[in-house]
Amino acid sequence: MPAHLIKAFSALTAVWVVYAAGFSRADSLTLTMTFLALMLALTFLLIGPSPNSQRDTILPTDWVLALASLAAGVYFVSQADDIARRITLLDPLSVWDITFASLILFLTIEAMRRTVGMGLTLIVLIFLAYNLWGDRLGGTLGHGEITYDHFIDITVFTTDGLFGVPLRVAATYAFLFVLFGTALSKAGGAQFFYNLAAYLTGGAVGGPAKIAVVSSGLYGTISGSPTSDVVTTGSVTIPMMKTMGYRSSFAAATEVAASTGGSLLPPVMGAAAFIMAEYTGIAYAEIALAALIPALLYYVPIYIQVHLRATRDGLKGVDLSEIPPLRKIMKDGGLFIVPLVIISWSLIAGYTPTYSALYGLAGVVAVSMVRRSTRMSPSAIYDVLAETSFRMVAVAGACAAAGLVIGGITMTGLASKFSTLVFMISGQNVLMSLIVAAILTTLLGMGMPTPSAYILAAVLISPVMQSLGIDQMAGHLFILYFAVMSALTPPVAVAAYAASAIADENPLVIAAQAVKIAIGAFLIPFAFIYQPGLLLNGSVVEIVVAVVTSIAGLALIALAVEGYYRTVYRWGPRLLMMGAGGLLLFGGWLFALVAVLVAAVGWGWNRMMVSRQLPGT
Length: 617
What we know:
membrane, mainly alpha, TRAP transporter fused permease subunit, transmembrane, 617 residues
């Protein structure tokens, strides 16, 4: 009985979000407060207090926490008008205000611990401790005294803290896009994209791995989650790759790398991209358009490495008799392209992401009704609504954590101090500052969901970008890339852990291989800083040159990483090819000319070594 009640509660939560985000006239603060209360209640009913907790029965304490979450939500919603009118730090907080604020803070931290683990929870607790007792540090990191009332006032009773941008995004278009992706997958869209990828690449050399690359990218752009993409498409592609002769670690790493890139691929991208739009004030359509070329470039070295590995090891494609003909694929599922077209059109036409997601969702429902085989029954729609709320529990926990961190940084002025630290390390050199920013973003993102990793890096590191004179779009996309890469970066690579269960392989081995396969993701952000044409910023000639040189550079880097192109490449020539590829990514005719010369020397050197059968040192 509790399971049925929880599922009904989850489905009703999704219905409420659709109504509140698309049709209600309630203010965003009330919407966000209600959303957090519902998500907290769901968290305590769905996830036990420890990883080993059995959910056959719900503990009495979890029922109490769920009811406390709803009670706190009722209180804050009832006081929403007063909260909106009050003057921060001037109007005193009542005893009830402080009591319920402390309660919602405790519930949020406990829900965060259950959903995203102790790693992020400890980081948040460190920030909270710094807010309350950082005045005792002195020196550069010290700040003025912050009382508990002051801390609660900023953290809970303003939109700079818990109920800020990250949670507001989760309560609106992030939720709606997850609902869109879930509905599209349930109606048969995931199978269509897989079949289309199989037709396009399955029969080629290394066909199974190429299917994984293409299908995971296509599915990832509607799911927005590397982990769910790995579980969905990887359950088919990883065993297929292993059967065709790929090693377990390489098969899983290919899936992880391809799935992670889906969060960077327009038109949907992931929750962090929505937060970027809200945080920067840049229209989401502009972000999606600017991100298109870099996202496609992301897959260039992955596809090339997969091809080179298959060619070297003699791995064949899938039997063509196992792949449905294109006519049947398009007949059975071609209409699933329509919802993506609707979303793309509505974003370009200037509609908000919220309404774009709603239009796309309506398109999925309409398309699914055309054929009996794809038609969603009332029970299927019910499942989609409930599953979406289930999937949003962890996202809500991550976004609430990000809000707490933002509130603390706002209070203490830590962002400016962080910029000083970066410049002390880099000496205000642009390239060195970017390298330090990339490393810090990756470190901050380890063990964190992408939305939290992005918002933390955006608050701390975006001032560095501004100080360097880097364009806002380029600077935040730079941060977004490294935040997304936290899903596959060791030692805490959540997508790799998801793949390890399917591949029966060590997750750290998978993560290390995935970093190697997704090498382009760590280089492309530097490329679009130095070549704005990759973000469609410049003349047609500048854009074309940037794209061509970047493709050539990434191809050389893929060759260097894989160490093979028609023949095995020794370490010396591989390093030269890597250097030539890096020079091409920086752009400019001089760099391109030097890169061509370096690549030619590397090719000639390797040919000479192979012909003389010299050792590869």
